[in-house]
Amino acid sequence: MVHNMRLDRTADSNRHATWLLDIGAGNNLDDNDTVGIPAAMCCSENIMDNLISSTYPEINHRNQSDQYFLDRTILSAKNDDVDDINEAILAKFPGAVEVIMSADTVELENETLNNYQPYPTEYLNTLIASGLPLAALKLKPGCPVMLLRNLNPSKGLCNGTRMIVTVIRRRVLQCRIISGDQRFAGSTVFIPRIILQPSAESLAIPLKRRQFPVRLAFAMTINKSQGQSVKHVGINLQTPVFSHGQLYAALSRCTSGERIKVLLPEENETKRTLNVVYKEVLSGFNL
Question: Could you tell me if 216 and 145 are in contact, meaning their C-beta atoms sit under 8 angstroms apart?
Answer without folding.
Answer: yes
